[in-house]
Design brief:
Blueprint (H helix, E strand, L loop, with lengths): L3 H12 L1 H12 L6 E4 L15 E5 L5 E8 L6 H16 L3 E7 L12 E5 L5 E6 L1 E4 L5 H5 L13 H5 L1 H14 L4 H15 L5 H10 L8 H8 L8 H35 L4 H9 L3 H9 L7 H5 L3
Parallel strand pairs: 3-4, 4-7
Antiparallel strand pairs: 1-2, 2-3, 5-6
Helix pairs in contact: 1-7, 1-10, 7-9, 8-10, 10-12
Length: 312
């Protein structure tokens, strides 16, 4: 799904990995670390687990991995892909792996995301029982996210509690962010991330109003510094500034999609030969990063360009 939401959340996690690892470890009931490595499997190869969203390697008496999948749109059979990533990680590193599915909004939920995937044999016997944790952001109290570390603050705005009382929860978000012992740059990044992610549940007009009210002391706020860093003048309102930033995030998402498509094109040429004009144009038109990732997952199984681009 090519939206600024997914890229924004990925960037947010990249910058606050320790916060996320500690929170997720608490969710699955294991010691929080220390965090030894973040996305340790992203070594540039084409291994299956390179397509997992996020992986955290924790130290301690019993080292373990946290495997996180992020979802802002509904996708059936996602648990099967999670099971594959979990199994490969566990066998490769011989360590426990805890898989977590983070659903960002109600429309992201699918009927098969129950937290358990059962594989049955020919006689109906249980062959494999894969357990994973489902985190539905909107169902948890806003304070769960507000108290979880600065990197998770924006998720408070996606809760049902915030949806019912956005100005109140946004005020608490602003207070926590202002008091957080992090740099102004981190605060401005989190504020802009919160605005973009807020688009999952609110219209832009409501977001602009709330974010403007959060920055009444604009001259002294990290938001104002963020505007200056972006090259905007005092003549721009906060709403105009975040609107421009949102457009910038969409541009980044499009760039990421084009990068994925170019990688698929290079790999596909090695297997199927050069594509015809229609195939090349179809591939270039794809803007859904998650769809492109699913196509990339099938590069070694597909038998032709048509088969590969027919990946749902």
């Amino acid at each position: 799904m090519s939206k600024p939401f997914d890229n924004t959340l990925n960037t947010l996690i990249d910058g606050t990995a320790a916060d996320w690892a500690a929170f997720l470890a608490g969710v699955v009931g294991i010691p929080p670390g220390p965090l030894l490595d973040y996305d340790p499997i992203r070594d540039g190869n084409l291994s299956t687990t390179a397509y997992a969203d996020k992986v955290f390697r924790l130290g301690g008496p019993t080292p373990a991995f946290l495997h996180l999948e992020l979802q802002s749109g509904s996708e059936l059979e996602l648990p099967k892909r999670m099971q594959l990533y979990n199994t490969v990680l566990r066998r490769r590193h011989e360590s426990p792996v805890y898989s977590i599915l983070l659903l960002l909004r109600p429309s992201a939920a699918a009927s098969d995301q129950t937290g358990q995937l059962l594989d049955l044999g020919v006689n109906g016997e249980l062959v494999n029982d894969f357990r994973y944790t489902v985190l539905r952001v909107w169902e948890r109290p806003a304070d769960d996210w507000l108290n979880a570390g600065v990197g998770l603050l924006p998720l408070a705005l996606l809760t049902n509690e915030a949806f019912a009382r956005l100005p109140t929860v946004a005020g608490r978000f602003h207070d926590r962010l202002s008091a957080a012992p992090v740099t102004d740059k981190v605060k401005s990044d989190i504020l802009s991330s919160a605005f973009v992610l807020g688009g999952l549940r609110y219209n832009r007009t409501d977001l602009v109003e709330v974010f403007t009210n959060m920055s009444l002391t604009l001259e002294d706020s990290t938001t104002y510094q963020w505007i200056l860093e972006k090259g905007y003048t005092k003549g721009h309102t906060l709403g105009e500034a975040v609107g421009l930033a949102l457009g910038e995030a969409r541009g980044q998402a499009l760039g990421e999609a084009r990068g994925r498509a170019q990688t698929i094109l290079r790999q596909g040429i090695k297997k199927f030969g050069p594509p015809d004009t229609a195939v090349a144009e179809r591939l270039a038109a794809l803007a859904d990063v998650e769809h492109l990732d699913r196509i990339a997952d099938r590069i070694f199984d597909a038998v032709s360009w048509a088969d590969l681009l027919g990946t749902p």
